[in-house]
Design brief:
CATH superfamily of one domain: NAD(P)-binding Rossmann-like Domain
Radius of gyration: 25 Å
Strand content: 5-15%
Strand order of the largest sheet: 3-2-1-4-5-7-11
Structural class: alpha/beta
CATH topology of one domain: Rossmann fold
Oligomer: single chain
CATH class of one domain: Alpha Beta
CATH architecture of one domain: 3-Layer(aba) Sandwich
Shape: globular
């Protein structure tokens, strides 16, 4: 462990280190890679494990999906014509996948990695809430197992940092469990969010394998297989108290890692909903639609006029650069400690952002910056969104707005006959059919968003961050480096949520995520 914990000591910690990073093509991974290279150009090597068939393909993916992105602009300006040479010297792309033993790497590559790796950062995961159970299990559960086994073979490993998710402790809004203050404690093997239930990982793996064999024996189509596996994941997740397959498999992966680690130094990060960059290197930059961003983009297009959310609930968001800052400080703080430490990198306890902050800031932003119509470029008239704080109220509104009109048209067809209404539809230039298709599409879209996000928009829990607060207190007022070139702040109290949403996050979502 380093002594004085300040920004300069954190930067110095990464000098000469060889770091294996999984998940570098994801949003958080890109922010992390850029930050390390920007603040410590004397890092020895970043080994980036990416899904690719060979080294050349891996290199191309890294160039296109990581170092070629907008957030590397400061580094490009700093190195000028030497940027590509710098990247080639510091980054080593590895074609592989955590779902395989030893990541599918060859013996020569493994020998070098076992010898040289100082730090492992596991950020790889499938983040689709309703992913196929087999796919999510391979990546989020078996991936954690393979990472742990690999780490134990590294001769000079100082730390394994595993990025999990705070959301895995959030149950289905129907179950109503796990409310109140949620502590920074590990999941024990077999632990579930439902009392009296026991989770057997081997049994889950067998269930997946048996289902695969059954589908194959029945010659099921690819579409049928995908549907069955998605439904199986959701069923198993909810049976044990989790809202979806993603958070369920992430929880299993975390408990497996804790069970297997032995004396391996492990830090587990559980960020809440990660949002756009607050400060550096590019405020507002974001990639991949986060939990709340689907609603923002839909509202910008006026494709969503209402939503299921209690505006008084805490949404618990944290900017991506703050998560990366905390990760780097934690790596320096816990290097070579033969222990497991868990961090909730969240805002719900220290500086809660309520859904009303986002709703008010969003309406104000689009009033001042009305989006343009795709047809003629005219500004779209922005209507204030309606919010329903309970499921019954939302369902009643949905029934009147969508369900009733959708049921009326088929009854007309039945009563007056298809031919007559078909002629009427032609006479009206297809208005009836287009209206029916539009209502059906909107109904399915809104129902999808509600099913996806209701466990979070009606959630009553709050994440304790006592470990994270201790880490912050060790930094005190030394989060800024002496040369002023880097910042390791991760205190959510420094954020004015209304200003952040209005001036940074919402403009960032519109700029980087809108079609």
């Amino acid at each position: 462990m380093i002594g004085e914990l300040d920004a300069d000591a954190v930067v110095e910690y990464f000098r000469g280190k060889n770091i294996l990073i999984t998940g570098s093509t994801g949003f958080l991974g890109k922010v992390l890679v850029e930050k390390i290279l920007r603040v410590q150009p004397d890092v020895e090597k970043l080994f980036l494990l990416v899904r690719a068939v060979d080294v050349e393909s891996a290199k191309q993916r890294v160039q296109t999906e990581v170092t070629g992105r907008e957030i590397f602009g400061i580094l490009k300006d700093k190195h000028g014509d030497g940027f590509e040479a710098f990247i080639e010297e510091k980054i080593c792309p590895l074609p592989g996948d955590i779902m395989y033993e030893n990541f599918g790497l060859g013996n020569t590559q493994l020998t070098g990695l076992y010898r040289d790796t100082d730090i492992i950062i596991n950020g790889a995961a499938t983040t689709n809430f309703f992913e196929r159970y087999d796919v999510a299990f391979d990546s989020n559960v078996l991936g954690a197992k393979h990472i742990c086994r690999f780490a134990k073979n590294c001769a000079k490993l100082k730390l394994l940092l595993h990025v999990s998710t705070g959301k895995k402790q959030q149950p289905s809004y129907v179950a109503g469990e796990q409310e109140g203050l949620l502590l920074e404690k590990p999941f024990l093997m077999g632990e579930t969010l439902k009392g009296g239930m026991h989770l057997d990982i081997e049994s889950e793996l067998k269930l997946i394998e048996d289902t695969r064999r059954e589908l194959k024996a029945n010659c099921s189509s690819e579409r049928a297989e995908k549907k069955t596996m998605k439904e199986l994941g959701l069923k198993r997740a909810r049976e044990f108290g989790w809202p979806n397959t993603y958070v369920f498999t992430k929880a299993i992966g975390e408990m497996l890692l804790g069970h297997m680690r032995g004396e391996l130094p492990v830090v587990i990060f559980r960020p809440s909903i990660i949002t756009s960059i607050l400060k550096e290197p590019l405020p507002g930059w974001i990639e991949g639609v986060r939990t709340i961003d689907s609603v923002i983009t839909a509202y910008a297009k006026q494709a969503l006029s209402f939503f299921l959310v209690d505006l008084d609930k805490i949404m618990d968001v944290i900017p991506g650069d703050m998560v990366v800052n905390a990760m780097m400080v934690a790596m320096a703080a816990h290097s070579e400690e033969q222990a497991q430490t868990i961090y909730h990198v969240t805002s719900s306890l220290r500086n809660p952002a309520h859904y009303s902050h986002l709703a008010d800031s969003g309406h104000r932003y689009f009033l001042h910056h009305p989006p343009s119509s795709g047809k003629n470029g005219e500004p779209v008239r922005v209507r204030k969104m309606r919010f329903f704080s309970t499921v019954p109220r939302c369902r009643a509104y949905m029934a009147i707005k969508y369900k009733l009109p959708l049921e009326v048209l088929p009854q007309f067809y039945s009563r007056f006959g298809f031919d007559i209404l078909h002629l009427v539809n032609i006479a009206l230039c297809g208005v009836l059919s287009r209206r029916y298709e539009e209502l059906s599409r909107k109904y399915n879209y809104v129902m999808h968003l509600i099913e996806l996000y209701a466990p979070y928009t009606l959630y009553n829990g709050c994440f304790d961050d006592i470990n994270t607060e201790r880490l912050r207190s060790r930094m005190k007022n030394k989060e800024q480096g002496r040369n002023g070139g880097y910042d390791f702040g991760f205190d959510p109290k420094s954020i004015d949520w209304d200003e952040y949403f209005y001036r940074i996050h919402i403009p960032g979502v519109i700029k980087y995520l809108s079609d």
